[in-house]
Amino acid sequence: MKLSIEITAVMGVVWCFLFIGLMSAFAEYIAWFCVILTGLGLMAGWGGMYYAKVSARSSHEELIATDNYKNNVSEADKAN
User: How would you write 31-58 as a 3-class SS string?
Assistant: First the structure.
């Protein structure tokens, strides 16, 4: 039993140094991957919001052009 405890302690140190070595080799690539993913996510979010803005504007202009906005306006909006 004592041998298994000693082996476990030694393997813990070995795994620790192995992990540190792997992180020092690949940490820069992982960091750049995270930066690129964040940038792509922000660009996709901007594109989605721009699309929503344009489609909402065109729907609003279409309602006004066809004079249907009077039927789609709530009572609270009519008061303003």
Answer: HHHHHHHHHHHHHHHHHHHHHHHHHHHH
